[in-house]
Request: fold
Amino acid sequence: MTIDVTMPALSPTMEVGTLAKWHVKPGDLLKSGDIIAEIETDKATMEVEAVDEGTVAELLVAEGTENVPVGAVIMRLDGEGEASPKAAPAPNPTPSPSREREGSSSTPAAAPAPPAQPTPLPPAGGAGGGPSGSRTIATPLARRVAEQQGIDLSAIKGTGPNNRIIRADVDAAITSPPKVSGAGEDERRAERGPGEGAPVPTPAPTAPPAPKPAAPPPTTDIPHTLEKLGPVRKVIARRLTEAKQTVPHIYLTLDVELDALLKLRADLNKALEPRGVKLSVNDLVIKALALALRQVPKCNVSFAGDNLLVYDRADISVAVAAPSGLITPIINGADTKSVSVISSEMKALAEKARAGKLQPHEYQGGTASLSNLGMFGIKQFDAVINPPQAMILAVGAGEKRAVVKGDALAIATVMTITGSFDHRAIDGADGAALMGAVKGLIESPLGLVA
Amino acid sequence: MTHDLLILGSGPGGYVAAIRASQLGLKVAIIERERLGGICLNWGCIPTKALLRTSEIYHYITHADAYGLSVEKPSFDLKKVTDRSRKVAAQLNSGVKSLMKKHKIEVIEGQGRLTSATSIAVTTASGTRDLSAKNIIIATGARARDLPGVEADGNRIWTYRHAMVPPAMPTRLLVIGSGAIGVEFASFYSDMGAKVTVVEMLDRILPVEDADVSAHVQKALTKQGMAIITGAKVSDVSPGPDGVTATITTADGKAATEHYSHVIVAIGILPNTQDIGLEALNIATNRGHITTDPMCQTNVPGLYAIGDVTGPPWLAHKASHEGIIAVEHIAGGHPHAMDVGLIPGCTYARPQVASIGLTEAKAKAAGHTVRVGKFPFIGNGKAIALGEAEGFVKTVFDATTGQLLGAHMVGAEVTELIQGYAIAMGLETTEAELMHTIFPHPTLSEMMHESVLDAYGRAIHF
Reply:
């Protein structure tokens, strides 16, 4: 019997995925648990394991194909015995989108459920679109110039001997960006590094509409290069545009004195040194925000149409600059975790984020966010809310400033923090209460370790 | 139409085009007023290489002691030397004849003249023949340029052609012009014992080569006993019964009149565009050379031109390559246009010179940030074993992309080495592939590797 293996939903928000790499080829005998493919989702690259046993009959989606809808058949197995025709697994349980007030589960659901109907996908690369696709033939010089200029070789038509891509072709592509090739065009794929998007647009009938560019495609005579957006960048663009267009932001700014917190941190670090823990200011601010959210529960919410989700736990999404773009790993239950636990978790998550190895449950969810640009010397900024969350705290640099204490000038280490709040869910006064709570916890920091 | 294709001129452009046309099934005729093979193999590349081989061996014999050999009173017979050169030319001429026969190419001996864009009238020994074809390739080549007011009569004042069959051995030779032809004859006659003076109008000899190469060759030739005068003009060349007097005026205005036994005029060439009917066709030219597009088409539909008649570089291999392009285009193919930056050039003096691509100065002028590698012969084991420890291999890379922009070599056998870089450049390799290439030991070619390594501060043996 034939078993259809479909594009799995690897995260609750996943709608489409890129088939980054096949680990099997027709004729391979699969056992349950074998890695069959690598799928690139909007945030990470994940390996997909086989649940069914059988022989690989056909790979229906070429390596590198983008925007393969969840549920689309990607592979056919000739089953052995009584293997059940079940789709490939989703490695983590999909949380119910209509979660009630329960503190147990982790993620507030966001996106609509993935399309239920498996959608057959026309194989990429024309007839017989197997995995052993063509490789891009290019001269070493063409490859190097393309790499230096960020040009996707697979989008270039070669004019050298045997249609090899030569330097002149790359130069031409730099001066006049190639038009996107339609179906039926001679398709060639590059040997790509991980994390890069596949170059060949594949017609995917049920793929969600791509975010419409706000501006027409740029046509310019100014010397430039064209860089294809990776999946992460695309998600950032889509979600932040959505946030700014649909969420009415209010911004509340406060100055916070840091000296007490810095002293506490120094003392703690001295004490924690034997355990190899070194707290950062940011770790303490995570804790402060989490506790403040618990103190002002009106700010630990999500706006959900006719409802308001009021969270009983503070999960803090922390913005991390990864090579592929901004990503926000989460410290779950930061309100109840000790600062040393927060510190070591944060360290591990940031490393994984930079390596592109975060699992969806590590970055999806969160009840509020924190973004700290203080290390870059930024004094103050307004962050964009990460829906469905309703607030984000933007943290500036701590610096010595002149402050008035009583009637005298004094020097204090001060940092400016700005909260962005979803005004549909949170009023200014509530936001101000949260900001006050954060300030109080930072300026009298013993509460952070109580 | 009598033919599919007519080719006017049978030099290395014309005869190669004819063979390719035959391979592609075209009915082709080639028209030659003199000898099959043109200047190249009758009066140019090949017979001069025969002469230079003689002078090279003679040089080794007169320096045999350096190799532990004793040769008593070496001498030569000039007539035998030139006879050998002529025999070599004759052998190749008959070789081309048999190639024409093998490919069933009709060879018409006579003076051809275009009567329209599709027809040629050929004046042969037995009368006039009218030929016609849809396509015509003009491959009439070039001839030596005269020095104004000086007639190269072949007695005391020679062109390359006279210099190849000298009536007598020069004792004091003046060579006017220091391009490849001038320097090759200077080298030949100097090695054969003449006292040679080379005068160049520009500020260095072999002016198309990299400045380092020019400087090295000038030094080497001077060391061999030649007088090299650059930035100078020659005037008042007047032949007398026992030689020629000529006035050489240097850049500082000083003029000196000297006496020479013979003079070779090698100041460049002129395209052969006269008396072949081009005027009536309104064919476009640039400084006398026929203007062509990348497929070798002239402005007259159906009419192609290749080789020296279309302009520099005036090299046989350029003509042959253009011949292939033109014929394949005529046959409906889509040949790749010639990249003039990838035409190697060779000068067979002692020392030899070979180069391809941009000189360091031209690369910089073109806006490249360059990485330059240079490796001397003295660092190469084979060169030392050969007793040829002078010269160098210079490579010029674009610092950003690692593109090999040019290579410039001077020294023993470099003319046989340059093709390696030509292949590398044609395949668009970068320094990385060249570094990864394994060069055999012991060979002179190892210097090509070392020069690349040197450009990146990684040379091993120097």
About this structure: Residues 81-133, 178-216 of chain A have pLDDT under 50 and may be disordered.
